[in-house]
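Field reference: "sequence" (input) and "structure" (output). Example, LolA-like domain-containing protein:
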Amino acid sequence: MFRKLLLLIVCICLKISWCQLIDLNICPNGLTNSPSDPQWPKIFPNRFEIFSEITTDVETFEVMQLFIGPHRDIIYFRNYEKNLQIYYDFETNEIFTINDELKCNRSKIQSNEYLLFITNQYIKPSILLGFDGRNNYSMGFYTRYIGKEIIRDGILTKKFESCFYINQENLTINATYYLSESPPNEMHINSAPDFVQIDVRSSNYLYTYNIIRYVSNPSLTFTTPSGVYCPNRINRKEFPQNLPSRLLVQAEIYIPKTNDTTSKIESYNRFIDETLKFERIDYSIGKIITPPQPNQILIDYSTNLSYMYTSETQQCTVMNASIHSIGTTNEILFQFGANNNSIQFQYTGITNCEREHVKCHRWIGQRDLNTLIQQYEWYWSAKYNEIDLSEFIPIKVNIATIYKTGSSKPIIQEANMFNYNPQPNSMENIDSILGECYRALGPSHNFNYAILRMTLNNDAKYPIHQHLLSLENHLHIQLANDLKIRHIRLSSFVIDTTHDTTNQQDKDVYVTFTLLDNPPISSNSLRELSSLELIRQLARQINDGNFYVRDNDGAFDLQARPNSLRTLVFYLLPSENHTNYFNETAFIYHNVTQTIIKQREKLVYQHTGSKITALWTGFALLGMVVALAVGSFILIRKWAPIFNHQRT
Ligand SMILES: *[C@@H]1O[C@H](CO)[C@@H](O)[C@H](O)[C@H]1NC(C)=O
Ligand SMILES: *[C@@H]1O[C@H](CO)[C@@H](O)[C@H](O)[C@H]1NC(C)=O
Ligand SMILES: *[C@@H]1O[C@H](CO)[C@@H](O)[C@H](O)[C@H]1NC(C)=O
Ligand SMILES: *[C@@H]1O[C@H](CO)[C@@H](O)[C@H](O)[C@H]1NC(C)=O
Ligand SMILES: *[C@@H]1O[C@H](CO)[C@@H](O)[C@H](O)[C@H]1NC(C)=O
Ligand SMILES: *[C@@H]1O[C@H](CO)[C@@H](O)[C@H](O)[C@H]1NC(C)=O
Ligand SMILES: *[C@@H]1O[C@H](CO)[C@@H](O)[C@H](O)[C@H]1NC(C)=O
Ligand SMILES: *[C@@H]1O[C@H](CO)[C@@H](O)[C@H](O)[C@H]1NC(C)=O
Ligand SMILES: *[C@@H]1O[C@H](CO)[C@@H](O)[C@H](O)[C@H]1NC(C)=O
Ligand SMILES: *[C@@H]1O[C@H](CO)[C@@H](O)[C@H](O)[C@H]1NC(C)=O
Ligand SMILES: *[C@@H]1O[C@H](CO)[C@@H](O)[C@H](O)[C@H]1NC(C)=O
């Protein structure tokens, strides 16, 4: 009776509402009141890892809690029949429950909901350590020192007790703590507590936490496991969108073995130019295959054509690209624009990504393709040596192909990216492959081109031989600008400075290059001027003395000599008027074979320069187009290889 009276007095001092609710069967002496015993650890870390075993009269199971800051925690629960990982995120108010098969169930936490329990009966370890159900320090949690006690046959412990009440659940808890007694020389006021055991009584339910390991302030990251996608999860960080408009990246893809094939590593070089709407992919599987397969692909998004080139045989196949209005680097790189079936990514946190010193942001997303699901898990650099990076760079992607039907296991491929270059040189990267493709396809397929030559006046005797590369670049840009065409139409520049060995006074610079015509497609969307019109225009400009190529630093400043433009080779569409238009300074032939032989003789005779003859080697295969069984190469070229899923 006296005790109850005392309790009442205590209650008046504390919050009255609590007292009426306390279960006096659990805490006959009432709540433990402020302050906590001085021997109780003063600063309780809000970041810890606790690994324990819960034992009751009837069962035993394992519980591990990772507690990170005030807003998140993870519970790992394991008993003889199930194995669960439960992620609580009070920032987004979500719980993710992940089972043995790594299936994830997401549920919402009401904003006023307090999550105290692991299962219906057992409260989370963090609650017993003085946190509330939303992982904040709990207001009404205090402890009393009881005395020393030896438990488990010999562990000397300090025993504490706490009776506290959890408002939201109308739950009274009486917990007894056993902290191991630190040897005197290790006594620090702020040293981490070392829990051995916690006995819990609530609503006449008794259980014991046997603490196997307690670590305070560990380095923990809150990430759901790799490869786990939680439908409807709130995305906490946008998937990187701000890719540069030009990009060169190298990737190696590990392809696991299947019943029919061995495992292999394929490597890709991808170059993307968003403004040019152009992509080049070089592909290699690290071994020689016969017959040779295409190993370079050019995709011209402005004409919807893809050129597949086999460098060994100099063969080119052109196809309609099966791509739907993809425009930005982002869409090209990830193909998310396709079929309006863009992937919703969810951010899963910062993790290791198998690169030294690098930590990565991770996103996961899925695309549903009727019979299968394609899952992408992207890793982008986040930190280098723990320093935050301002710009994200793709590091790797895991691509899982998950079959909806049948028992086939998911196929997982890993692509690692290297040599990310956000400022590649577009001209160098496209180089002359498109020109080579045109030559291989040839006028018989209406892939027409011209080879032109002009003379630059170098009476000022600039040391051109020291600046050949720069001159080539400047010429390329100047011609593309003046003619208002994409620079991919110009290639194979040959600069000849020692053209006429019989005349030592001749300092002129001879420039030979290839000009490609528009590809023969019906669409006019990005059609530029035809070669015929361009040659006409260039001839006019040169003859008017208006074609210059200048280096900004003054290394050269050259003017094209009027009337110097020569058309060495020119193929036209049959419909085009091929009257000799160029005042006898150029040759326009439509009758291909005959012309080339004539021209070659003339050239070789006039200019013995080896560079110019080299230009002609491409013509050995003129008109030779071999229909290739390209198979699915066009499909597997992307990060997302597609499998023959009919077979399963
Ligand atoms: C809270 O629990 C106590 C003891 O279990 C009970 O007597 C009381 O009625 C409960 N109060 C509410 C509001 O549920
Ligand atoms: C907690 O329970 C123990 C018995 O398990 C009891 O001795 C103790 O008095 C209780 N604490 C309070 C504050 O009532
Ligand atoms: C997911 O969790 C919710 C709430 O916890 C539950 O109602 C639902 O049945 C669960 N779904 C699956 C597939 O486990
Ligand atoms: C948790 O604590 C933080 C600061 O300590 C506070 O801003 C927040 O409102 C608290 N959350 C709840 C649910 O009490
Ligand atoms: C691969 O072989 C195993 C065993 O022979 C078979 O069960 C499985 O269906 C095969 N998978 C495929 C994709 O053919
Ligand atoms: C490319 O193909 C897509 C879809 O087939 C079409 O919408 C687009 O207009 C085409 N672009 C060109 C330049 O033909
Ligand atoms: C590309 O598609 C167009 C019409 O859509 C068709 O006329 C043309 O033959 C196709 N070209 C190739 C190389 O398949
Ligand atoms: C793509 O999807 C969005 C939203 O689902 C829709 O608003 C849009 O009209 C779709 N676009 C096309 C081309 O189907
Ligand atoms: C070709 O051009 C010439 C000169 O411009 C003109 O006389 C002739 O009629 C044209 N031929 C055709 C088929 O357009
Ligand atoms: C044709 O070229 C010659 C020199 O090669 C030049 O004198 C003449 O003016 C040119 N005619 C036209 C119409 O451009
Ligand atoms: C091309 O030239 C050859 C040889 O002079 C001739 O037999 C053939 O008819 C010409 N073809 C065309 C399309 O003019």
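The first strand starts at residue 47 and ends at 55.
Residues 336-340, 578-648 have pLDDT under 50 and may be disordered.
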